[in-house]
Each structure stands twice: as structure tokens, then as C-alpha cells.
Amino acid sequence: MIKHLHFLVMPVVALAILAPGSPGADDKVGPDAKDVRKVRDKAVAFLRTRQAENGGFAPEVAGPGVTALVVAALIRNGVPDDDPIVKKGLAYLTKSVKKDGGIYDEKLANYVTCVGIMAFAEANKGGKYDSVLKNATAFIKKLQHDDPAGKALSLGGLGYDAKSRPDMSNTQYFIDALIAAGVSRDDPAIQNALKFVSRCQNQPGEFNDQPFAKKAKDDDVGGFVYVPDPDDKRHSTGDGGLRSVGAMTYGGLKSFLYAGVKKDDPRVKGAVAWIRRHYTLDENPGMGQSGLFYYYHTFAKAMSALGEDQFEDSKGKKHDWRKDLFEALDKRQNKDGSFSNAKDKGFGENVPDLATAFALLALSYTKK
User: Fold this and answer.
1) Which of 42, 145, 198, 321 could bond 154 through an S-S bridge, CB–CB 3.0 to 4.6 Å?
2) In total, how many domains does the chain have?
3) CA quadruple 334, 33, 309, 279: dihedral, nearest 10
4) 368 assigned to some structural domain
5) At 89, is the secondary structure helix, strand, or coil?
6) Structure confidence at residue 3 (pLDDT)
């Protein structure tokens, strides 16, 4: 973070006996397309007013990072890559590509390159950016923490740059970027990243032997921590354990599914169980309003990957998560079409360019 179905045809008789409101009684899921377009068009119109002459967006936040998120969000929401706002954004990003393959300015090399990869992957019609993607993925692989013996806690993880402590946020973006660029899920870089991701889960056992996981409180079991470090004062439970947080848990679930971990794997089942207990769009669980739009984006990608149109929480209530997400976004859109998070603490979402990009990315997953 700053401090991604087919239906079986049923016989008419079978459809007739389904109870009203039950899964399958109405194949329509998600919000009305007209409502989505209204929110989308207002947000896109706002972003058109925010682009600098050089094509960038809010470079003071993360160099070319916000621009990459905006470009990816615009393309995912149907803005063509020859539209001036996208065309100028891509040109700006292209100028940010370094000789080492990275896409960054002076800091946050991993984070910014990862979101840059996602933007170029969205725009890669006809293989136009194949070489950029190849070089960028090679660059971020070099930032991945390694340990020949395979025992270091940091193995497979990534931080903001080569010298930073690995964290769950940067590592899940790394997996997102590699998958978006077409890297095989069997690639050693992805499989090693999964080792770090597994060590961020509050679930002791075969995949996580860390003491903090063994001290996880019942309500935290299955969820994910930001960093697997019991000295992390921000998320400490005070007894050697660490608090699970929403965005990281959805990021962990998404990482597992993207990398081919099966749904019956105990890690996936644990994450889903935590989400069933903490399902909400009112806040980023464990973080309140901080990182809320980042949470919405990660929530959307994870739920889409999970593939359940109606998600049942631990109380047995079924949620049309696409509609829930849309409603959460709709009520938070400002009159000028932007999104912003005045209550955000340190993640940059008080900058409307960033919050609006995350909101549009999330919005793109509300369409089935």
C-alpha cells in the first residue's frame, strides 16, 4: 500500500420450483448496468480534469504509481487506449521505464513497477508492450528476498524496494503483476512468494511455523497480517500475537487463488472462514476507514477469483457482493465525481486521484 461464469442451463421445471430469492431463482446478480455507468462516467470525467500536461496523475504520492492505477482503471472501465487521457497516461508511464526494466521514479520501486505492469498489461493489445512487461517482471524478480537454505522468514517476500522489509501488501501486488504479465503460476518466483504469503496467515501448521500464528486469537485465525513480525506494534495483540486485517486477508486469498492453490486447501478455507466472520463494506476490518478504497479493490479481485455470486457469511446471510460493493462506492462518490478518504491515515487516499483510481478499479468487478 502507499504510506486486481458460465451457467448451466436448467430445465424449466427446475426453475419453477426454486423459492423466490434463492440462488438461481433470479440469475441477475450485481447492480443495474445503468447505475454503474452513471458512477463510472462521473469518475472518468473527474479524472479528465486532473491529468497534468505531461500525462501524469499525482506524482507527489508515488511517482508514476497513481498514473498506472488510473490508466489501468480507465481501460478496465471501457475507456479505449487511443483516448487522449489513456494515451497521454501511457506515454508518461513509458517515459518512467528505467534501463533496469523498472517503472518508477526515485522510490517505491517494487510497488510502482507492479502497478505499472498491470497498466501496461491492460493496454497490451497486439503485444505492443511485450518487451516492457518482460523487462519489468525481470526487474521485480530481482527485488524478491531470497535465502538459499529456504528458512528465512523473509523468503519470497517483497517490500517497497530491494532494501525494505517484506510485507503482505507488496508481495500480493508482486503476484498480481506477474500473473497479469503472463508469468506461469508455477514460476519459482510465484511459488516462493506463496511461502511468504503463507507465513503472513494467522494459521499455524504445515505452512506457517511462526510463533505469532500459534498465539492468534480465535477471531483472527485464518486472516492475514501486514508483516509476520511480532514486533509490529501497529497490529500487535499484546501477547505475541498479531491482528488480522481485511485488505491483507483478501490479498492473501486472491494470491492463493491466482497462483493455483485449490479451494479445498486449508489456507484457502481458513481465509474464506475469516472473511465469512468479518464480511463488510463499511470499513477495512482491523483498520477502520484507513486504506478503505485499497480494501475495496482487493475485496473485488478476491471475490471475483473465488467465484461465488452469492457469498454466505458466518450467520448464514447471503450477500450479492457485487451489489454490496457498488452500493458502498455509490454512496461515497463526491458530487464532482471523485472519491476521497479524509479519514485515511497514511495511505494517500486523501488524494482524490488515488482514491478514485482504486474506486474505479473496484467498480470494474461489479459487472458479471
Assistant:
1) 145
2) 1
3) 10
4) no
5) helix
6) 42
- Cβ neighbors of 312 (< 8 A, separation 6 or more) are 276, 318, 319
- pLDDT at residue 17 above 70? no
DSSP-derived letter for residue 125 is G
Give the closest residue to 249 by CA, choosing from 222, 216, 224: 224
The residue ranking higher by pLDDT, 368 or 138, is: 138
Average per-residue pLDDT for the chain: 90
- With respect to residue 2, please indicate whether it lies within any of the assigned structural domains: no
Q: State the amino acid at position 271 in one-letter form.
A: A
Q: What is the pLDDT of residues 54-95, one digit of tens each?
A: 999 998 888 999 999 999 999 999 999 999 999 999 999 999
CATH number of residue 144's parent domain: 1.50.10.20
Q: Which of 317, 315, 280, 318 is nearest to 299 (CA)?
A: 280
Mapping DSSP onto H, E and C, the string for 246-285 reads HHHHHHHHHHHHHCCCCCCCHHHHHHHHHHHHHCCCCCEC
pLDDT, position 234: 81
> Does 128 map to a domain?
yes
> 160, 71, 149: which is closest to 112 by C-alpha?
160
- In the block, residue with C-alpha cell 507492479: 114
**Cα 359 to Cα 274: distance, rounded to the nearest angstrom:** 24
- Grid-cell match 478496465, residue found: 76
Domain range for 45: 12-363
Please state the pTM of the whole predicted model: 0.91
Cβ(126)–Cβ(163) below 8 Å:
no
The answer to the question of residue 267 being in a domain is yes
CB 104 within 8 A of CB 98: yes
Q: How big is the CA angle at 365 (ends 362 and 368), to the nearest 5 degrees?
A: 160
